[in-house]
Amino acid sequence: MSGNSFVIAPLSPQEKISVAIDGLHASRTTVIAKSTASDHLSMIIIHVHEHGLSRNDLSKAIDILTRPSSLRKSQALQLLKLLYPREKVDDDVVIRIVGCLGVGQGKADQLVQVNLLRWLVLIQPFLKSQKILSKVYHILFMHLSYESTRQWIAHLLFLATKRHDIRPWRIQYLLEMQNKYRESQHLTGLLLLYKEYFPEIVIDRFAKLRGALFKYPDPQFLTIIHEVHARANSLSGEVPSFSRDGLSNLKRRKLNIPEMITLDVSEKSVTVEELSTLASFAKNIDRVSLPAQVGSVLRDDGMVKRILVNRPSQRAWARLNTWIASSLREELDDAEENGNRGEGLLGELLARSYDLCLYTKELLISVEDFLCIYLPRWDGVRHRSTVFRLLLLLPVRRWEIIDRDITSPLTAIFQKDTENWSFRYDYLVFLEDLLRSYSVRCGKVTSYGRDREVDGLSHAEVIKTMSSLFAHWESMFKKVSYSDHGATEIQGASLYMYNVVEIGSKF
């Protein structure tokens, strides 16, 4: 080797990626052969899963995809699958993607648009600024009319929506769109999100959503991104910029009880927020205005409950029952979909509903209807204490109704797991407490004469219910074997049970 020769250092993997991206970027101004484009893509495939794309390379790749080029559609879609950013994604990338949406000259191919929007959903946790989605919210919203991109537009809007984004005209537009495209689950899902912020503005009932609608679409992509970032940061000696829990914020699930805010208050009105003592409540009971969203009673310290009980309004109770029924059903669907993660919210809502029912001394019709749906699906373990406490507030019903809606599904649990003495004991105690409660109610009525009704039932119907309920308790009691753990406690409770029945028989 002569003294004038030079040794050319081999290109690093990052440099090879950059050379390949530059080669593809040339397709914007010149026609490149299909084989040449394939060679460039192959080079990117070899290295990108380990090293990702630099900020500059990603920008050029987005330029290729969002503007006219000679790159074939299949190759453009292949490039889209290789966009693993090594750094946080600039706002400019989002703006260019949003700018290429729609139809007309200079717009990206429709299939490319769909996949670009999906990619935006994938990299949303890694945006340099989350505010950029809010800045393009209006543009995204107006593209909901395009069926081909609606799924990912709705997903991005779901991720970006804040309270200030929800405008009356947007609600109306979504309702009209949903009415036009009734099978669109994504429009329904977006409306449900709007409803979480304003429960009484959006319609109350929706078709049941199928599966996890707005879940992260590609967990493997997320894993690769984290590996790319970890490698890049370890080589540079920097602290990793991204947490592995980037996925946790993609679905915001918390018990969304409305804030206690009163609107449209006249000069003579008094808001709940202004009442601080029982004296002020008694003084202003005729002038106090209910909160705009009556569901806020579940976070109330007592004032709204007092208004509902002491100044009853059929319309207010109807609004409250509608809100509770809808919320309980949504939390049940979420619990069935997400398992333990969703059960906590359902339990909290049931507990808050119990506090309200206990205050009013009545089981709300919305809660009673929900329990009839829930019990056949219940495992007998979760929220057991709350469920039984709610059922103790059950009005006296005809035995046929109680048996169909309450005791039959609970008996199925009782008989299914013969080793679960804990549920068996709690169920027998529940039956005893329910009979005791019914006896007390019936005992109060006897002083007014036997023609007096109990919860709308005649004397004969009440007697039939109580005798059938006791017979059911007795049959359940006999099924408990003496070898069961806890059988002594169960049998000891029977002595008190016969006293309860004796009291009830006097009715």
From TrEMBL:
Gene Ontology CC terms, in alphabetical order: inner kinetochore; nucleus
Organism from which the protein derives: Lipomyces starkeyi NRRL Y-11557
Biological process according to GO: CENP-A containing chromatin assembly; mitotic sister chromatid segregation
Location of this chain's protein in the cell: Chromosome, Centromere; Nucleus
Keywords on record: Centromere, Chromosome, Nucleus
UniProt name for this protein: Uncharacterized protein
InterPro entries to which the protein is assigned, alphabetical: CENP-I (IPR012485)
Top-level taxon of origin: Eukaryota
Main location class: nucleus
Tagged with keyword Nucleus: yes
Family per record: Belongs to the CENP-I/CTF3 family.
